[in-house]
């Protein structure tokens, strides 16, 4: 099935772009609280371990708490990293001129769906595919 040309006007696309860029900055700030960019792969984030003081290194409860905090940061980081990549992908689609087009059907994505999730890749009919 051939793709249907995107009928969304430039002004609306620019508004969605601004919304995506704002959310991306918020996600980056949140990512920085639980992780850092992997120096070997700048597209990947890794969790930050919590520092242990000399005193804490001998306390098994403190060590267990720090490990639990690290595991929690890892889970949070994973969710933020997924959203980070979704937002980056949406900006790429804007650049390529494919933003607002369902990747499954080629139909335009409903504007209310994009309002709810500006990084949406599919229309409502295909959102669970």
Q: Averaged pLDDT, please?
A: 84
SSE order in H/E notation? Answer: HEEHH
- What overall geometry do the principal axes of the alpha carbons give? elongated
Instruction: Note the main sheet.
Output: 2 strands, antiparallel
What is the strand content? Answer: 5-15%
Segments where pLDDT lies below 50 for 5+ residues? 1-5
Structural class: mainly alpha
Assembly type: single chain
Count of strand segments: 2
Radius of gyration: 20 Å
How many helical stretches?
3
End-to-end span in angstroms? 17 Å
Neighbour order of strands in the largest sheet: 1-2
Q: Helicity, in percent?
A: 40-55%
Detailed description of the structure:
- This protein is mainly α and 129 residues long.
- The chain is 53% helix and 9% strand.
- The chain has helices at residues 10-34, 60-96, 111-116; strands spanning 35-38, 41-47.
- Strand 1 (35-38) and strand 2 (41-47) form a beta hairpin.
- It starts with 9 loop residues before the first helix and ends in a 13-residue tail after the last helix.
- The model is unreliable at 1-5 (pLDDT under 50).
């Amino acid at each position: 099935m051939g793709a249907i040309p995107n009928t969304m006007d430039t002004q609306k696309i620019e508004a969605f772009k601004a919304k995506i860029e704002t959310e991306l900055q918020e996600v980056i700030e949140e990512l920085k609280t639980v992780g850092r960019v992997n120096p070997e792969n700048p597209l990947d984030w890794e969790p930050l371990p919590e520092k242990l003081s000399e005193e804490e290194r001998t306390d098994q409860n403190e060590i267990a708490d720090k490990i639990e905090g690290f595991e929690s940061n890892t889970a949070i980081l994973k969710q933020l990293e997924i959203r980070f990549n979704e937002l980056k992908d949406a900006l790429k689609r804007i650049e390529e001129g494919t933003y607002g087009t369902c990747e499954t059907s080629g139909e335009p994505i409903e504007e209310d769906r994009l309002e709810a999730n500006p990084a949406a890749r599919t229309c409502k009919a295909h959102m669970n595919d």
